[in-house]
Amino acid sequence: MKVLTKIKLCFGSLLAVFIMMSCKNEAKTETTSTKTEEAQKSAKKQGQAFLKDDEAQPNVLDIAIGSEAHSTLVAAVQAAELENALVNAGPLMVFAPTNEAFDALPEGTVENLLKPENKNALANILKYHVTPGRYTKDFLKKFKKLGQANNQNVPVEVKGDDVYVGGAKIVASVPAGNGIVHVVDKVILPPN
């Protein structure tokens, strides 16, 4: 009788341990799967351009967003839905027109380009401002032309110490985690 009672107690204890372990595993699985689902929904909703990393050097998009002088450029990038392209590993060289450069375009041009039906034309213009690479202003003096992200070439000219890309003068340069931003005084319009 004592042996039977001990077997029942042992079996009962093993059963209790098994049930407790199952409950803990289910709770971990539910928590993990819930977190995974939330992360996937967030990633689908936003894309890598919207992930924030306080420790890394700002990328070219972060630099444009952080510059009051480039709010029109940022609005154009958002309208063309090119944010994710500007946070890629790169390296990317972005020729970033200032708000004043956009203001110098014929009246109504920017407003017209920001319309949804002109998204492709706007994207073409913006891609004409991006080159693969990370070249300083001085290094750019060695080039006659650059191949742009819209598959067209842009001319490079040197006038004294100044460098002009597509007729736009580089007025400042800011290194980025994934390239370099060259601030330019003019919107560079592609030939096509």
Structure in words:
The protein has helices spanning 2-46, 60-65, 71-79, 99-103, 109-113, 119-127, 137-140; strands spanning 92-97, 130-132, 145-147, 153-159, 162-165, 168-176, 179-184. The relative contact order is 0.14. The longest helix has 45 residues, at 2-46. It starts with a helix and ends in an 8-residue tail after the last strand. It is globular. The protein is built from 7 helices and 7 strands. The protein is 43% helix and 20% strand. A 7-stranded mixed β-sheet has the order 2-1-7-6-5-4-3. The model is unreliable at 1-45 (pLDDT under 50). By secondary structure, it is of the alpha+beta class. The protein has 2 domains: 2-46; 56-184, FAS1 domain (Roll).
Topology:
Layout: H1 2-46, H2 60-65, H3 71-79, E1 92-97, H4 99-103, H5 109-113, H6 119-127, E2 130-132, H7 137-140, E3 145-147, E4 153-159, E5 162-165, E6 168-176, E7 179-184
Parallel strand pairs: 1-7
Antiparallel strand pairs: 1-2, 3-4, 4-5, 5-6, 6-7
